[in-house]
Amino acid sequence: MNITMISGSRNPDGKTATMADALLQGASSAGADCDRHFLPELAIERCRQCDERGWGDCIQKGACVIEDDFAALVENIRAADAVVFANPVYFSDLSESLKAFLDRLRRITRHESAKPGIEGKPAVGVCVAGGGGGGAPACVERMQRVLGLCGFDVLDLVPVRRQNMNLKAEVLELTGRWLASRKPD
């Protein structure tokens, strides 16, 4: 099993990375190969809403005209057996980098040609709030909606608060082991 992790966190050593790593360590211990992608380190532009209707090649061809790291990352997702989305919670929402990536992904997946390798792909989301933690549940709900629009089979969403990180690290390690040992439907 190959699991790819997409992180919207700027800090590869921060709270979000720690929680995502707990999941990936659990998956690795169950035999999965795991790779990590930190969106702020990649060149991923936001959607340009190319034509006067606010769409463009995404709706017509299932591809984005912007030449950056987006297409290669989408191919990495397609090649994976499962995807983990890790997000630091700011303002009860997705981080700017994850939102920019998912905005473009949900646009291309409106076209049939972009759905293979994404539609039905198992996905797990982790939303980590470092402050008071009240924004984690709202962020999880937002992630559920966007990943569903992209066509992922969202298996689990885990809200994490600074106050419960030790407990959630254990939960995420178990989630990783479970994800790696799942038999494809």
Verbal overview:
The structure is a single chain. The chain is of the alpha/beta class. The protein has one domain: Rossmann fold (3-Layer(aba) Sandwich). 41% of the residues lie in helices and 19% in strands. A 5-stranded parallel β-sheet has the order 2-1-3-4-5, sandwiched between helices. Helix 1 packs parallel to helix 6. The longest helix is centred in the last third of the chain and has 17 residues. The two termini are 14 Å apart. The mean pLDDT is 95.
Low-pLDDT stretches are none
Domains (count):
1
What is the CATH T-level topology?
A: Rossmann fold
Number of strands: 5
Let me know the CATH homologous superfamily. Answer: Flavodoxin domain
Strand content: 15-25%
Mean pLDDT: 95
Features:
185 residues; alpha/beta; Rossmann fold; five-stranded parallel β-sheet; 5 strands; globular
SSE diagram, text form:
Blueprint: E1 2-7, H1 15-29, E2 33-38, H2 57-61, H3 70-79, E3 82-88, H4 96-108, E4 122-129, H5 136-150, E5 153-161, H6 165-181
Helix pairs in contact: 1-6, 4-5
Summarize the structure.
With 185 residues, the chain is α/β, with parallel strands linked by helices. The chain has one domain: Rossmann fold, CATH 3.40.50.
